[in-house]
Specification:
The chain has 157 residues and is mainly α. The chain has a single domain, classed as Tetracycline Repressor, domain 2 (Orthogonal Bundle), CATH 1.10.357. 73% of the residues lie in helices and 0% in strands. It is built from seven helices and no strands. The longest helix is centred in the middle third of the chain and has 26 residues.
Amino acid sequence: MRKSSVFSLFGSKRELQLAALEGAVEQFTEEVWAPVADETPGLVRLLALCDSWLAYHEREVMPGGCFLTTATVEYDARPGPLRDAVARTMKRWLGVLEHEVTVAIGAGELPSETRPADVAFTLNALAAAASYGFQLNRDPKVFDVARRSMRRALSQD
């Protein structure tokens, strides 16, 4: 099939890219968030979320690694609708992580001086590093390193 035939199904290359991003977000939500959504809010759900997130990468649900990490790197310096959509998606995801950290702080599960945005940033950086580290080296031990590091970030060695 020609590229132009594929693009014509979506109206334009940009619309195809936006649809691919939307599909990747839906798949990520189903694979990572849905399995832990019923866990106790706060630290329990946050730890389960980290495990689910890394398992998603380990299972190679998306061939070639994390779609969102790749899209972030690919479009971070390219102004336009796709970059804006990726930025909104990542902001929303970091917001989910921050919320869970905030709940854990409120429940006394994390120290009161914990900065939710810092923890969310750290968890996201660790998951991204595990994803591309595995893709580059094919060494599954990166997921063990990421799990330990995530638990340290959450004061749960």
